[in-house]
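Table 4 source record.
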Amino acid sequence: MKKWMLILAVMSVFILSACNEEPDEEEVETVTPVEVEEVTVEDFSVTKSFTARSMPNDQVPVLAEAPGEVEELFVERGDEVEEGDVIAEYSSQYGWMEIEAPIDGIIQELNLQEERMVTTEEPAAVVINTDPLVLNFQLTANNRDLIEVGDDVRYKVSQADRDGEAEVTYIASTAGESGLFDVEAEVEQTDDPVPSGLTAQVELDEVIESDAYVVPTEAIVERGADQFVYIVENDEAIRVDVDVIAMQSQYTAIEPLADDIIAEGDTVVTRGQLTIEDGQTVRIVEED
């Protein structure tokens, strides 16, 4: 009996020892995949948009030399004409006479009908030239300094599904009654011309900060009052606290709060930045 009790006691000791032994646990460091873009140093601009009206560059009324009766009409409203083309023939007290187009362009107005009288008191027609097309818009005194004559500005005419660049040809030296300065920019027409009288949007760029650190806006992390980005050095995420100078939808100009902590060409995290912490190991992956 004593022998069996001794055996049970020894076995209990072994069992208790086995239960108290903890298995070795390997600490596995989490490596977070991230996407990055390079920090650039450049003049950071914001885009300002102004409403413009498309206008002909020339508009000439056509007058009959003498009153008379229209015998034959050769054009319709909207027709294209060249300078010297005969618009109509009419008989007057001075005999057979012609009304000619004074410039190349389009018949915008036509006040003639065959077998009806033509007078010298009102234009028989109005011819406009829309090549180049003029965009007319207005600027405040502050915005007037953003451009000079000869500069190119971006424009978009949504109604005609057209966009491109227009050359600034005129900036008023004095403000009008509204306190705004008139500006004109010319658009070279294509085979599919933009009609006059449409609304356009003209875009101007204003430099907010020269030689600024620029990063994708999505790289900015906000936690409470803090704003920061993560840069990657030797597969390690490093938090850099920053001030936001100016923000746009795609890119943001920043100023690091500490000197020499960020430089042009550094890689800043643009995907995965919300799930990492300062000093964490990361793995850079290509954008999908």
